């Protein structure tokens, strides 16, 4: 296997060359995996091989963990002032921004998302790195009043070695959400990207070196979840796991963390988010936001508004406009200027989504729009809408992770709150109405970590993100995320108490 992979982009939206290292990045260098394994990276547009990258296993995770622990003890953590850590994060953000189009093209290539959407992801990742660069020298404890004979204060110290496992739907965004607060707080990191979409993480590694991070502070180990991911969760040097992905895998990570060294765990997991649409909406804006809620990123978003509840009085008007909007969405080449939706990420994901569409039809839902493969190659699926859905149907209860909406008609506020909360998940929700009293009342009634009013899939980097119920543990983004990457130490100083 060659140590680098070069790709020539010649598309309507980007022309250029990208060279990506394909090995494992440990202790500041790219190395071959111990067992010499490889993983094929496929192009979801046509199913063809783009390149092969190194496949790490438990032995490679152990090497990375040793490097990360040594770096933490000798040249990172509290040995490097926060202001200095912040400068490095800002430098990394600058370097990433300077290469925006190249990173967007790589993201579009191996994820299948549109180049325009990938550019937004890169811009968001730059902003996240800068945000946490600003926090790096502002992670403070408190002085706590007790008695005149004692002084007490707290220190917010780094946890140590953080294992970060990120998904394939927003690879670079999730990378920044993990390493931004982890590095700002003084931790070292072992990152395992998804085996489906490793390219941008690998391309970032030379920029990490250029930004001045000491060897071993950031390590990237490609590999399968069942091998490298499992080994990272089990490793006794790793002090914390930060994971974004499925609820099923999150359960396994939590169990493994408990059985190893009881490492800290934060989990951002699945969702089945409701969008609640009342009669008194701004119809045009609501249709656009609801479509964005379910079809953004090809429906491959944990916050996808896949359960759409529409009040009876507006149902017909909404469905007419929503149908027209959905039919107008262009599915095709991610690098075409007018494409809204590219392919799903993999054959496995394609088959999973088509299986849910089949289930919806078999269980009696009405296939209103879409439901078929788009084209004759690649993993493209038409944007799909089901109506006449019942709460017991699989397409209503289970996370599909694709461009499939289930629409349910409702009558009263009390009814829809009950229906919306009837789920194992609690990641996000949205409420559409011009009545601000009702908007706030319903948003407060929803059992979800994020509630959007008159919008959907509209995150802010300074606002915490995370779920209730089986949608996860802990929060990402904002100041709240720093709590996941620090230990609080209480210090008591005797200044006069005598025994």
The end-to-end distance, rounded to whole angstroms, is 70 Å
**What is the overall pLDDT average?**
97
Helix content: 25-40%
Strand arrangement, largest sheet? Answer: 16-17-18-15-14-20-21
Number of helices: 14
E-strand count: 24
Strand count, sense and closure of the main sheet?
A: 7 strands, mixed
Unreliable residue runs: none
The shape is globular
Structural class by secondary-structure content: alpha/beta
Q: What is the radius of gyration?
A: 24 Å
Percent of sequence in beta strands: 15-25%
Topology:
Elements (H helix, E strand, L loop, with lengths): L3 E7 L4 E7 L2 E3 L2 E3 L5 E6 L6 E7 L2 H18 L6 H17 L1 H12 L3 H21 L7 E2 L5 E9 L2 E5 L5 H14 L3 E5 L6 H12 L7 E3 L4 H10 L5 E5 L2 H13 L4 E5 L5 E4 L5 H13 L11 E5 H16 L19 H16 L3 E4 L14 E4 L6 H4 L6 E7 L2 H8 L4 E2 L1 E5 L3 H10 L4 E4 L14 E2 L2 E2 L12 E9 L5
Parallel strand pairs: 9-10, 9-12, 10-11, 12-13, 14-15, 14-20, 15-18, 17-18, 20-21
Antiparallel strand pairs: 1-2, 3-4, 5-6, 7-8, 8-24, 13-23, 16-17, 19-22
Q: How would you portray this structure in words?
A:
The longest helix is centred in the first third of the chain and has 21 residues, at 115-135. The chain is globular. The protein is an alpha/beta fold. It has helices spanning 58-75, 82-98, 100-111, 115-135, 171-184, 199-210, 225-234, 247-259, 283-295, 312-327, 347-362, 394-397, 413-420, 436-445, and strands spanning 4-10, 15-21, 24-26, 29-31, 37-42, 49-55, 143-144, 150-158, 161-165, 188-192, 218-220, 240-244, 264-268, 274-277, 307-311, 366-369, 384-387, 404-410, 425-426, 428-432, 450-453, 468-469, 472-473, 486-494. The protein contains 14 helices and 24 strands. The model has no long low-confidence stretch (mean pLDDT 97). The strands form 7 sheets. The protein has a 7-stranded mixed β-sheet with strand order 16-17-18-15-14-20-21, sandwiched between helices.
């Amino acid at each position: 296997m060659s140590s680098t992979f070069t790709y020539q982009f010649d598309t309507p939206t980007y022309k250029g060359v990208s060279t990506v290292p394909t090995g494992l990045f440990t202790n500041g260098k790219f190395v071959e995996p111990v067992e010499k394994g490889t993983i094929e990276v496929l192009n979801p547009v046509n199913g063809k091989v783009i390149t092969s990258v190194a496949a790490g296993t438990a032995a490679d995770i152990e090497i990375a963990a040793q490097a990360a622990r040594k770096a933490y003890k000798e040249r990172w953590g509290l040995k490097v002032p926060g202001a200095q850590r912040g400068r490095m994060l800002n430098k990394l953000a600058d370097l990433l921004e300077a290469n925006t189009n190249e990173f967007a093209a790589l993201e579009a290539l191996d994820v299948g998302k549109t180049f325009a959407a990938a550019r937004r992801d890169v811009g968001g990742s730059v902003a996240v790195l800068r945000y946490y660069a600003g926090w790096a020298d502002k992670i403070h404890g408190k002085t706590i009043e007790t008695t005149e004979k004692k002084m007490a204060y707290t220190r917010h110290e780094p946890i140590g070695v953080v294992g970060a496992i990120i998904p394939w739907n927003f690879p670079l965004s999730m990378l920044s959400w993990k390493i931004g607060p982890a590095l700002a707080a003084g931790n070292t990191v072992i990152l395992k990207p998804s085996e489906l979409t490793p390219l941008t993480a690998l391309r970032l590694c030379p920029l990490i070196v250029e930004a001045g991070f000491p060897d071993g502070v950031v390590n990237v180990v490609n590999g399968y979840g069942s091998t490298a991911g499992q080994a990272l969760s089990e490793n006794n040097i790793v002090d914390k796991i930060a994971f974004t992905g499925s609820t099923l895998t999150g359960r396994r990570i939590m169990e493994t963390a408990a059985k190893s060294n009881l490492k800290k765990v934060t989990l951002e997991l699945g969702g089945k988010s409701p969008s609640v649409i009342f009669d008194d909406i701004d119809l045009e804006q609501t249709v656009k936001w609801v479509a964005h809620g379910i079809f953004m990123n090809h429906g491959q978003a944990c916050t996808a508004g896949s359960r759409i509840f529409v009040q009876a009085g507006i149902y017909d008007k909404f469905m007419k406009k929503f149908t027209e909007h959905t039919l107008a969405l262009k599915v095709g080449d991610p690098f075409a200027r007018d494409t809204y939706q590219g392919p799903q990420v993999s054959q496995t994901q394609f088959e999973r989504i088509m299986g849910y569409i089949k289930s919806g039809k078999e269980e009696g839902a009405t296939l209103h729009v879409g439901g078929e493969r788009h084209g004759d190659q690649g993993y493209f699926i038409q944007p799909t809408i089901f109506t006449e859905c019942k709460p017991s149907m699989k397409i209503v209860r289970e996370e599909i992770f694709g461009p499939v909406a289930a629409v349910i008609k409702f009558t009263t506020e009390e009814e829809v709150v009950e229906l919306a909360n009837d789920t194992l998940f609690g990641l996000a929700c949205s409420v559409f109405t011009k009545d601000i009293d009702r908007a706030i009342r319903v948003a407060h009634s929803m059992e979800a970590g994020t509630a959007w009013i008159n919008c959907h899939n509209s995150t802010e980097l300074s606002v915490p993100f995370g779920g209730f119920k089986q949608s996860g543990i802990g929060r990402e983004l904002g100041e709240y995320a720093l709590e996941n990457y620090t230990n609080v130490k209480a210090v008591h100083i005797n200044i006069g108490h005598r025994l």
